[in-house]
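Entry 14. Structure prediction run on the chain below.
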Amino acid sequence: MNIAKTYNPKEAEDKWYAYWLEKGFFHSTPDDREPYTIVMPPPNVTGVLHMGHMLNNTIQDVLIRRARMQGKNACWVPGTDHASIATEAKVVAMLKEQGIDKKSLTREDFLKHAWEWKEKYGGIILKQLEKLGASCDWQRTKFTMDADLSEAVIDTFIKFYREGYIYRGVRMVNWDPQGKTALSDEEVIRKEVNQKLYYIRYTIKDSNDYIIIATTRPETIMADTAICINPQDERYQHLKGKTVLVPLINREIPIIQDEYVEMEFGTGCLKVTPAHDLNDYELGQKHNLPVIDILNDDGTLNEKAEILIGEDRFIARKKVAKLLEEVGQIEKIEDYKSQVGFSERTDAAIEPKLSMQWFCKMDELAKPALEYVENGSIKLIPDKFFASYKHWMENVKDWCISRQLWWGQRIPAWYNEKNEWVVAKTEEEAIQAFEDDGKTASGIRQEDDVLDTWFSSALWPMSVFDGVRHPDNADFKYYYPTSDLVTAPEILFFWVARMIIMGHDYTQKPPFKNVYLTGIVRDKLGRKMSKSLGNSPDPIELMEQYGTDGVRVGMLLSSPAGNDLMFDVSYCEQGRNFANKIWNAFRLVKGWETVDKPATEAQKNTASWFENRFNQAVAEIDEHFAHYRLSDALMTTYKLIWDDFCAWYLELVKPAYQTPIESETLETVKGFFQKVLKLAHPFMPFLTEELWHDAMFGSREAEDCIIVARYPEKSAFDEDVIKEFEIVQQIISEVRNVRNVKGISPKVALPLAINTIDIDLSKYQDSIVKLGNISEFSFVQEKVTGALSFLAGKSECYVKLEAENIDVEAERERISKEIAYLKGFLVSVEKKLSNERFVQNAKPEIVQNEQNKKADAEAKIQILEESLAGLG
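Output returned:
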């Protein structure tokens, strides 16, 4: 191809993604290779791509592309989650816009609308992931309400019920008045809220006396069934055995005693409202108190409240407070901060509510899931999350798995006309079960509730391979357990722990080996990116502006596992600049004419250095990937290409203007270019594929596309060669610095003399002359007077300038500062070496390293002091 002057990301992205799909590079089937499997955390079917998705899926794509290039059978399974609460809310809102009330529809009619909505909008996010370059096996795309996945969910419910893990009962649950459904504890987000603390007077019956109760929820006083005091509280001994009247409605309730009441909190008296507080409920059970539920499912007051019937709870709060003030039963009102639970899905304030629900016992199920992480069978990366995981698993509560919704897997329980119930997969099996129990199946109807969405997604690593229904199928046996899971820490318990629980229960194996926990994407002020704050850029717009490769690099440049990413658009600009750097380097090489000659010795020496440096970088990158330090792996790749390959290697072998390059050297350059493109491909798939197909690289047979080219393998490298060249780089950089400091044009050649001590730099003489623009080059044994000097390693280098270009005083000051710094450094090293505890307890190589530092500093100080003396 003819390479354009500038890189056009859009053209390359559309072309190569379509080509990869056409060639089936993303598709995987079982064979004799090592499998590498990732299941995508299924985004909500309601979702559109946001920055968190960008980060999460870029990481997954980097891992899967690298594994594919390593010759593994890479399988990345995509899909979406049906998201019961969020999707039902979307559909209800859509119907409302059309003038349709959900209550007016049958379940079947509502579900028809829901499926139509899903088909229209549910695939948006997956299409957006294609734009990101996600190399998923799209032929395996799954949806948590696909028929086969839903059947697996129903089978699991029945299995767990028969094993005694699932039960039905009235319990205090978290109630979402907006979603009108129960939630599990993990779906409740605690937030600190500014509230009012109302001090209310409760009149003691047959008396003019009163006691004062402090509450943030005056709207619930109509549900009070007792007042509780601590039996040790001397202030209230006279109240034992008495009753009080509930304000506004004058219902008589007893004063009870329990040590649960904290004497120091508030007034030391507690209103007990069993229907609307978990702790009050348990206190009520202990003292046999009645339960009065004054709230409807939507958070409005019902008839049991006796007043303000039909009012919303928050409006009722203000009205009750006003009514209490009017009758003189408000003592005072204070500002107060407290933690309030909110629904993760609807952001509505949660109401504790007594409700008949289905639950899953978690104690026994959680134990193996904790053991897998404790014994290292599953690694959490980073491991700082282990403590919270362990705490949660050791203190796990029973899981409320029923939801009062229509969208989702309907619970396979059946009721007869007497409200007796059985669990069965079909109505026919339910009828048989009733008959087997000697009960009537007359009036049979199925449970209205659906299962918590997390119950279905907990099966995801198994159900996507049909491993629940058919555990002996070829796909499941080959791909399971999966390899890596990439997800967010906030769903470590929602999802990750539950997948481990389900996986162990079915297979006695963990569902994955490693869990890479990403950080939160924040803006540069540290705020979490969100639509509500308006601080989250549109990922699609970013990719349009900076190119997909640029955005991928920008996301990963500063995203260490588990640590939050402080995102700034400048990172994407840096990513785009990196893509342009590679593009321009390619244009440079492609433009070289050749002459049929062998490489020069200088070119061979330079190639030897770069090959060793490349192999060293590959080893570093492999180490980073082994510890899931993807940001570090990218940075090593970035520096190798930008600095070592472009700034040094290409500049050293580049022919003079309008001069051809030796054919042997050009072939070496091409070989290195191919290698660095392979390293970059997982991070920058489109640019690397575009360049890979240029005719400059010729035929590659099996490696026709870089996506399936062989990833560079770790090879031996000579550290001495690398260290030698670091001295060369230092010399060239210092000569350039002399020009910069003295205001000398880069075009002015300068003389250079080197007094080498520890290494032979003669083989790099041509390289130093070329990049340093040296007029005269010599190796000397003695000091050179009247010249600027600097150290490169242990070698002293001298640049002889014209007299007018040397500021003797400034040079004396510079050397004096460097000597002072080195002497300070030497003191710190000597202090460490004089510490007997350090010398005796540190590893021998660490002590030797400190001794080497001391000797090196002493040698440099000596050289600099001699140079200072030479200035007169």
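The chain has a mean pLDDT of 92.
Filed with the rest of this week's runs.
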